[in-house]
Amino acid sequence: MKILLVEDEPKTGEYLRQGLSEAGFVVDWTQDGAEGLNLALQSFYDLVILDVMLPGLDGWQVLQSLRGRGLQMPVLFLTARDEVTDRVKGLELGADDYLVKPFSFAELLARVRTILRRGRGGAESTTLRVADLELDLLRRRVHRGGRRIDLTAKDFGLLELLMRRHGEVLPRSLIASQVWDMNFDSDSNVIEVAVRRLRVKIDEGHEVKLIHTVRGMGYVLEAPEEP
Amino acid sequence: MLRALSLTQRLTIFFTVLAAAVVFGLGWVFIQATARHFVDLDRGTLQDKQHLIEDIVRSANSIEDTKWRLNEALSHHHDLYVVVKDARSDVLYQSRGFQSPGLLQPPSASTAGETGLRLQHWASEGREYRAIGFQVTPAYDESGALDVLAAIDTEHHEHFLAELRRTLLLYALQAVAVSGLLGWLAAHQGLAPLRAMRAQAAAVSGHQFNERMPVAAVPIEMADLAAELNGMLDRLREDYRRLAEFSSDLAHELRTPISNLLTQTQVALSSKRDAPTYRNILASNAEELERMARMVADMLFLAKAERGMPLPNRERFSAAQGVQALLEFYDAVAEEKGIRLSVTGDGEIDGDRLMFRRAVSNLLSNAVRHGDPGSPVTVKIGTSDEGVSISVSNTADDIDPALLPRLFDRFFRGDPSRAHPASEGAGLGLSITKAIVEAHGGDIAATSGDRTVRMVMRFPPSAAIS
Question: Tell me: the pLDDT tens digits for A22-60?
């Protein structure tokens, strides 16, 4: 997966490049809007991450030029100003998502993966499986090691999210937004407690723990790697 | 043009123009009256002469006698000129040095009797004359009436009038000048309270907010203005005080986490540690930074709200549905504390659904955090003519009534100590709730008593929202 990162702030750019590279993406980074547009036109990218405030061409202009030339790759823009008009403008110009600075890297990574997963539907499986944990989407049932686990509706939703994106660290804000539709900064403690409660139901009494806390980042559901 | 003039200048000009109009008007009336008086005098004189000439002509027994007696009677009147012609326009008598203008119109018979006094006026060779013409029939020759023109040189009158005009003009100019000066003095004096207020206003600044307009010392017309200005200053001082407090709170709130981060990072760098320790430190830093980022986001939200926040997406929605979704969100936390969450009633709210949920979310978060373990947290929704009210109550120690209004102040915490669990917000939640409710045109109040703390939000009926 190839990502073009257009960000003029050197530190932010460097860390984003490093973080995305380590997450398994191929990243081209430029600090200049016009240069970014050239790169985007010359080679194929799966995603463009665009800062709005740029020297030369600003983010809007780059986005406009891309869409004007019929390039439909997903674009995620970064803005320092959380103004409704900014958001609306970006989305109207054809951006796929936006993040307001300061954002957490886990949040960015989760959004990037969400965008890249879109449109890659394929045959949707009705059963999610991680290690010996099984989630039946149709009958809304969860089994671990053949034993049935009772979950509330929201617990089920939380587990479904963690399993669909197993191996990914999901930040609290993304979990709040996806499971409870809480699209604003809310009590971070709530997610912690909810995950803790789910963990008790899923992991207690099992040798292998599946739900893990990544401090300062979020939560991840993954099976320990085979030795 | 007029706008550029000061109030004193305007008043002075107004006063001067007024004085000039009065003085010049008076002078004009006086000169007119005098001139009219001179005309009356001349008329009297000419009438006397008419009677004299009529007497002479009627009593004379021949043309020669007429000529002689006219000469005798009129020749030594040096301001009076008389021309007498017979029916054939031969001159019987003419005063020396006098040229008849030839425009003499014999008065018609009807006017001759009563108003034979119609004066004629003309100027000739630099002299001005006022004259009457009349006809008289001599006794010695009943067939031929004589035309008579009697004229008076009015020069000495004109001279007097000119002198009078000059004197009056001089006086009027001086009077206007003096009036202007007095007008300026009066305006200057009269506006002294305004200058006092200006001086007072100039003394007000962010550091010196205690100066007030002297309401008692200014005239009644300006007392209202002064009182209003003082009211404005009071409000500004209050806002300014809150802003200043807020800035210092903000600095303090940011200083603590920054200092934590700095200390922790520098201690970590001061000696070699193993990888898990570094991970731990970085994770802790990330948590702290996340809190700061959230605080900054909240601050920006509040700053926007202060500037007057428009509702991004207005729609009508059920309050109970919004609250229900939030109860599910807080379910896990409540369960852990043994708190039972419930909602009763419903109402339709016209506003922004997301912002409404954010407002209620903060109240629920507080209620669950501060509620006694094992106690209920109840949300009651009621609809009335005044709109929808939503109350969130929990069981907890009563709050000092004096602190209740301050709950909505930014960064306010009931417990003044700085030791807060990391999960607790920056103390902006209730401020944000208040800002959201106010953006919807509603209000919020806190009550406390009998170990029940209750927050009541009131949303006005949709029509009341601007």
Answer: 888 889 999 988 889 988 888 889 999 999 888 878 888
A197 touches chain B (CB under 8 A): yes
Distances (CA, A) of B446 to B398, B400, B406, B458, B459: 11, 11, 10, 12, 15
Between CA A182 and CA B365 the distance in angstroms is 13
Residue A15 C-alpha, separation from nearest chain B C-alpha, in angstroms: 14
* Phi, psi dihedrals of residue B393, rounded to the nearest 5°: -125, 150
* pLDDT tens profile B337-350: 999 999 999 999 98
Give the helix/strand (H/E) hosting A127. strand A127-130
Distance CA A36, CA A57 (A): 9
Q: Alpha helix (H) ranges present in B61-154?
A: 63-74, 109-115
> Which residue type does B225 have?
L
Chain B residues near residue A103 by CB distance under 8 angstroms: 293
Structure tokens at B22: 């009065």
User: Please, are residues A31 and A57 in contact by the beta-carbon 8 Å criterion?
Assistant: no
| B423: chain A residues, CB-CB within 8 Å | 187-189, 192
| Residue A16 contacts B, CB cutoff 8 Å | no
**Cβ–Cβ below 8 Å for A215 and B300:** no
Q: Is-above-0.90 flag for pTM?
A: no
Tally of helices (H runs) and strands (E runs) in chain A: 8, 11
Query: How far does the CA of residue B6 sit from the closest CA of chain A (Å)?
Result: 46
